[in-house]
Amino acid sequence: MKERILVTGGTGYIGSHTVVELQNSGYEVIIIDNLSNSSADVVDNIEKVSGTRPVFEKLDCLDFAGLDAVFTKYKGIKAIIHFAASKAVGESVQKPLLYYRNNLVSLINLLELMPKHGVEGIVFSSSCTVYGQPDELPVTEKAPIKKAESPYGNTKQINEEIIRDTVASGAPINAIMLRYFNPIGAHPTALLGELPNGVPQNLIPYLTQTAIGLREKLSVFGDDYDTPDGSCIRDFINVVDLAKAHVIAIRRILEKTQKEKVEVFNIGTGRGVSVLELINGFEKATGVKLNYQIVGRRAGDIEKVWANPDFANQELGWKAVETLEDTLRSAWNWQLKLRERGIQ
């Protein structure tokens, strides 16, 4: 019997890549997604890439009874990877209640149902936003949690506390929280990638949509930050590298090799790249010139952050291996493939 893993938000960007890696590693995957920021045909593409079709249930994680029914229907789910969350910093500033309801209640529902259905562990999709603007760079897992700059960032902090408090209360749950830096790129097959519904809130899909002519120009938010070229600095990590970290985390939970009941790992490359550097890198990798303009700073943005990934490298045996150039090229190939498929 293959071990069953539930992936919430599994048709989303990071979720879909992770489902492929889980299936390639021999797990049986059940996806829950409400399709608020993805589409059902992602399941077809997961099957094309991995050769296995995951189970798909269209469901909102706010629906407690619906979730309960899924656990009952698919008995023996061993662990959960929880991606289902609203994730745009700018939008969260505009719509805080949507973010608090969606991101907190979905996790609470899962944690409540896990002991009832004998689910042993959860891998939580967290974020480097919990560090705010760190005092020291690169940032380690020991860095203090700063006051969040956005409701989105705050939901990640609160969710980490909810997990810690639940485990500390004696709930029979183990957890691994992966604090991602900035996932970009697409699957090398160009069958999976980042395709948000509507106007993209993330840099790379907006960038590739601008490059292909769907958007008039890319806005760079601020060139007056305290960085070498004035634009924000981030740690851009390839989405497939990131997906593989989840498979290792799941195995660690199921094989009971955790050192603590709740563990935290930074999942990044360890290299800071500015937004303007990224644009130049894209132009170099693809030969496509980009129409962009510098505009004012955006609410909620952090000036600079990149990871110290040593703990994940040593303890998990995980490492980011894809180059930035290959990653940017994969994002462009994905955009070209979307055009070929007549999407957008």
TrEMBL record:
The alphabetical list of record keywords is: Carbohydrate metabolism, Galactose metabolism, Isomerase, NAD
Highest taxon of the lineage? Bacteria
Cite the EC number: 5.1.3.2
Name of the protein: UDP-glucose 4-epimerase
The answer, when asked if DNA-binding is one of the entry's keywords, is no
Tell me the organism's taxonomic lineage: Bacteria, Pseudomonadati, Bacteroidota, Bacteroidia, Bacteroidales
In the record, the note on similarity to other proteins reads: Belongs to the NAD(P)-dependent epimerase/dehydratase family.
Q: Which GO terms of type biological process are on file? A: galactose metabolic process
Which Pfam family name is an example for this entry?
Epimerase
Question: Assembly state and interactors?
Answer: Homodimer.
Q: What class of enzyme is it?
A: isomerase
- Alphabetized GO MF terms: UDP-glucose 4-epimerase activity
Q: NCBIfam families, from UniProt?
A: galE (TIGR01179)
Name the chemical reaction catalysed here.
Answer: UDP-alpha-D-glucose = UDP-alpha-D-galactose
